[in-house]
Backbone:
């Protein structure tokens, strides 16, 4: 007697077996994935083209100042700090969440790491404190959202207010000057490691690590699965709450690293550090193709978004445009990016 074949077991959200993808014939599913990948490549190439155009505009409007080597290094250095934050935010958004507290977490980590007591332990004490405070704040966000079932918008908004308030209480409104020579030396003009400014090197390392985690690990595939369809991911055996906790921990870790980079850059800790970072990081991720609804995004796209935003800000500053005009322009860019996303989604559904 012939034994019936055992039912096929689901192998988890591995590559090519994604729970958020509806059951479709293999050929159709494969062509859809290829189409999405093609769109991501086209978007990244478009952002690269925009970046080239911006460099040309900066070179034409302020040729001496914009193309100066020091100014180009300044753009890369400033992009490095917000870029590290954006990598963490990109993971959170792909996972279906949002983090409005990144700027406040950077402020809290920077002022806690620059207290006189912390500076007694030198370079290691400042770096360790910044990272631990960032992780702790990310842990609170993750627990509230994953296990407290709070809406990410509300939980991170509460963290924003609390972290800003705590940073103000720690500093009493004063700037905490860093006196540790080894920290200050990293931010000096002309300081290089392997021929590259140290902060740019850190940004590159975080970018490569983020790309590998998102594209080459089970953690990355689970992040995409949870953001694409949380219920399907749960039925596939993924611990959705734990995955969300990890994502906010990752965002907190990136904020802690960015806080240390900001300390190196400014030589101080202030409660106003990281102001509006949440706007810039989320906007850069959206411009880079990360969907606000979750389930899709790339680290390379987000990094290009950061470079575009930082270059625009630099050109505005060199041409003496007021900050309110800069904010209006950023808002217009965000609206345009969201409209492009909607068009892309409609194209993907047809």
Residues:
């Amino acid at each position: 007697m012939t034994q019936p074949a055992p039912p096929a077991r689901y192998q988890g959200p591995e590559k090519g077996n994604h729970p958020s993808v509806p059951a479709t014939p293999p050929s159709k599913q494969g062509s859809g994935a290829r189409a999405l990948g093609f769109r991501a490549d086209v978007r990244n190439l478009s952002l690269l083209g925009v970046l080239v155009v911006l460099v040309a505009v900066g070179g034409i409007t302020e040729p001496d100042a914009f193309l100066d080597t020091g100014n180009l290094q300044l753009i890369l250095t400033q992009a490095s700090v917000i870029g590290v934050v954006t990598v963490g935010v990109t993971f959170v958004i792909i996972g279906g969440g949002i983090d409005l507290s990144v700027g406040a977490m950077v402020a809290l980590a920077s002022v806690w790491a620059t207290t006189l007591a912390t500076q007694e332990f030198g370079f290691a004490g400042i770096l360790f404190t910044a990272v631990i405070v960032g992780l702790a704040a990310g842990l609170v966000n993750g627990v509230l959202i994953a296990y407290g079932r709070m809406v990410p918008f509300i939980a991170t908004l509460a963290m924003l207010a609390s972290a800003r308030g705590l940073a103000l209480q720690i500093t009493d409104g004063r700037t905490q000057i860093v006196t540790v020579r080894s920290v200050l030396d990293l931010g000096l003009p002309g300081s290089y490691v392997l021929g590259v400014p140290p902060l740019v090197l850190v940004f590159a390392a975080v970018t490569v690590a983020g790309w590998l985690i998102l594209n080459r690990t089970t953690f990355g595939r689970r992040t995409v699965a949870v953001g694409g369809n949380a219920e399907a991911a749960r039925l596939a055996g993924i611990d959705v709450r734990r995955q969300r906790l990890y994502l906010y921990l990752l965002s907190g870790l990136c904020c802690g690293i960015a806080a240390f980079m900001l300390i190196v850059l400014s030589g101080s800790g202030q409660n106003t550090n990281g102001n509006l970072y949440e706007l810039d990081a989320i906007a850069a991720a959206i411009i880079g193709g990360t969907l606000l609804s979750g389930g899709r995004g790339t680290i390379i796209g987000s990094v290009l978004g950061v470079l575009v935003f930082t270059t625009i800000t630099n050109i505005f500053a060199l041409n003496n445009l007021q900050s309110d005009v800069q904010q209006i322009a950023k808002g217009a860019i965000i609206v345009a990016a969201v409209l492009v996303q909607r068009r892309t989604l409609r194209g993907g559904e047809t």
Remarks:
- DSSP finds 15 helices and two strands in the chain.
- Residues 26-61 form the longest helix (36 residues).
- Confidence is low (pLDDT under 50) at residues 1-29.
